[in-house]
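Hey all, quick one. A colleague (J.T.) asked me to put the nicotinamide-adenine-dinucleotide job into the tracker so the inputs and the structure tokens live in one place instead of scattered across chat threads. No bug as far as I know, just bookkeeping. Sequence used:
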Amino acid sequence: MQKARVGIVGCGTISDIYLKNCVSDEFIEIVAVSDLNEQAAREKAKTYNIQRVLTPDELYTDPDVDMILNLTIPAAHAEVSLKALENGKHVFLEKPLSISLQDADQILQVAKEKGLQVGVAPDTFLGGGLQTCRQLIDEGSIGKPVAATAFMMSHGPESWHPNPYFYYQEGAGPLFDMGPYYLTALIHLIGPFRRVTGSAQSALKERIATSPERNGEVIPVNTPTHVTGVIDFENGAVGTLIMSFDVWGATLPWIEIYGTEGTLRVPDPNTFGGPVYIKKAGELDWTELALTHGNTENERGLGLKDMARAIVTGSPTRASGEMGYHVLEAMHGFYTASANNQHYAMQSQCERPAPVETN
Ligand SMILES: NC(=O)c1ccc[n+]([C@@H]2O[C@H](COP(=O)([O-])OP(=O)(O)OC[C@H]3O[C@@H](n4cnc5c(N)ncnc54)[C@H](O)[C@@H]3O)[C@@H](O)[C@H]2O)c1
């Protein structure tokens, strides 16, 4: 195989950046698009010059498709991925891997049985900012990592998002929507988790949308909107995490990694670039460091490209289904711990993804 032939299911908001970044790639040929809304698929095919528009069912069984890019909403992630895998297609999908752990289990199980690969966003850890941080940690620039913090403090998306309803339902909220960026970055930088604990609350039972499209609409809140967590990493480091849609203002950093010989200030893990700062033991000021890796703009699709390369060359996928599963289990673990008044011991394991080579 020279290139993986990719068919897209889900031609909504996020599909544009994937199409823009992936239409011409060494290891990818986008051969077809599909959506429950046929018009949406037609428009993307026209804009990006994709030859074929199929129904999702036609796409799953098409013999000229090797891999499905699943860009549907979280509630459809499992159904679409399973149909693709059962028909012998590799799958890369947007986060989270699924809403429930049972569905995620089934996705990985079917992939294993069929000898297929599963990859899952986020892929921001493959960008220049987080790869620079990884290289610094691996080189020992801050000594041994002993602790980390990860904060996403906001007041939710209903002031700007045209359709914010789903953000307050199961499978979203700040933890499931934004947590994957932070948790994946922590696995990439420090390693997998041994156990987690947390407290999860909602400040409001209803939210009032103020975005122009939904101004005044009442949104029922059916998921926690402020989650505080503690992570024990396999290697002994300890992490503190807050993901919130209940905060009007804060001065906390995105991610910091504290080592025995210094601190690394990590850029926003929802982006691909910098800045990266370091403060070594005894130094008074932070130093901004030059990025060691490229891919620093909006590079969504890097994970898909990496997976296509993996399929063509027979090597592992960095944004792997196993890592996506570990992230999903940890997110459920924070809620379980909060409900049960005790730590949640992680059942799954995953590898730290291999760092990206410098050019
Ligand atoms: N919008 C963003 O800024 C953004 C950023 C990062 C990640 N994501 C992730 O990308 C995914 C998609 O988000 P979006 O904003 O593009 O959503 P969207 O609602 O704009 O688009 C989703 C599309 O999927 C289609 N769809 C839904 N169920 C389907 C099914 N069963 N079969 C075929 N098509 C189906 C819908 O018709 C729609 O066109 C989500 O997982 C989201 O978390 C979105």
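Adding what we noticed when we looked at it: Residues 9-14, 35-37, 40, 56, 71-74, 76, 79-80, 94-95 surround nicotinamide-adenine-dinucleotide (CB under 6 Å). The chain is about 30% helix and 25% strand.
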